[in-house]
Amino acid sequence: MKWAIDLETTISNATGFDAGDMFTSEEEVRYYFTTDNLTGMFAEDPPTQDTLDEWADAVTENRWHCNWEVTS
Predict the structure, then answer these.
(1) With bands split at pLDDT 50, 70 and 90, how would you rate the model's confidence at 66?
(2) What residues make up the domain containing 65?
(3) How many angstroms separate the Cα of 18 from the Cα of each of 10, 11, 71, 72?
(4) Whole-angstrom Cα distance, residue 68 to residue 61?
(5) pTM of the predicted model, to two decimals?
(6) How many domains does the chain have?
(7) At what angle do helices 35-42 and 49-62 cross, to 10 degrees?
(8) In a domain, 1, yes or no
């Protein structure tokens, strides 16, 4: 899915989400993708919280840089 790869690259370039330890829960992903967290890490204006929420959804749905068991 080319769009998914492009989106993953866009999110990575904007947030560096895949540069550190893998996420171990959806809660970690949600916390990472907050304006407070990203402003503190990058000291600049992050994307809007709505955009960050969409990106967190994409990261968890595609399990990019995620390492937790999926329960059905």
Answers:
(1) very high
(2) 24-72
(3) 12, 9, 23, 26
(4) 12
(5) 0.83
(6) 1
(7) 90
(8) no
